[in-house]
Design a protein that fits this description.
- The chain is α/β, with parallel strands linked by helices.
- The protein has a single domain, classed as Rossmann fold.
- 34% of the residues lie in helices and 23% in strands.
- The chain is built from six helices and eight strands.
- An eight-stranded mixed sheet has the order 1-2-4-3-5-6-7-8, sandwiched between helices.
- Helix 3 crosses helix 4.
């Protein structure tokens, strides 16, 4: 029985040495690929398992790093790094492009068939790659209803799917409205799913350290959001074309 293979990849970005997790499906042929971004705490086994699951579905998957190999379990430390990052589209794009270059350089990757999926900060980075005009097949985000610089959203050339919890205080209704208005004005093919009763980071299993207020796991919606992401990929980036 053939199985997926995984390996750690190191690459420079944002003045740091990033440590990503690459998962490859069985075989030797080129496959569509997914760039997978983590929540603001950073790359963890949660994202590594998701990359592995995507490889089992037939995708090359790179779970990318945003903190130079560190996982920021202290909410104050996480916010001190992530808030300035989220306010700097060029830094986010630099982190995204560095990871994208690694994914494209993988011999198993079909460089013309790549999607970006991200959670929280990782989702914001995925959106900035789209706003930078990267030729992605799809962008999927959870908890990442970030808005961009004027006129750049029109450079997104693929469908955008976004998921958010209805009770997320970090992505409140006003933020949802600003995001969807931006997508609509730019002519983007967009979808927004609001998961009833869910908080911020509802997709992420409970952690053994403090979190910012408004964060909470919702196992049923976490499963639904994952299925929605897989459906997005099946529609826009099928394993076989």
């Amino acid at each position: 029985m053939t199985t997926i293979t995984t390996r750690t990849v190191e690459y420079p970005a944002d003045g740091l040495t990033m440590i990503g997790h690459l998962a490859l499906p069985p075989g030797t042929d080129r496959r569509p690929a997914v760039l997978l971004g983590p929540e603001g705490m950073g790359l963890s086994d949660v994202e590594r398992r998701r990359a592995d699951a995507l490889a089992e579905l037939g995708y090359v998957a790179l779970a990318f790093d945003i903190h130079g190999g560190r996982y920021l379990g202290d909410p104050e430390e996480m916010l001190a790094r992530c808030l300035p990052l989220l306010d700097d589209p060029d830094r986010m794009r630099g982190i995204g492009h560095a990871a994208l270059d690694v994914l494209r350089a993988e011999p198993r990757t079909d460089p013309d068939r790549i999607a970006a999926v991200g959670y929280g900060t990782g989702g914001a980075i995925a959106l900035e790659l789209g706003r930078d005009g990267v030729g992605l097949r799809a962008i999927g985000t959870v908890n990442a209803l970030t808005t961009g610089r004027p006129d750049e959203t029109a450079r997104i050339r693929c469908p955008v799917w976004a998921g958010v919890g209805s009770e997320d205080p970090i992505m409140p209704p006003a933020q949802r409205d600003a995001f969807t208005a931006e997508m609509q004005a730019a002519g983007v093919d967009w979808r927004l799913v609001v998961y009833g009763g869910a908080l911020h980071a509802f997709h992420h299993p409970p952690v053994d350290h403090p979190v910012v207020p408004g964060v909470g796991y919702h196992p049923r919606h976490a499963q639904r959001a994952w299925h929605d992401v897989v459906d997005l990929l099946a529609e826009c980036l099928p394993v076989t074309e």
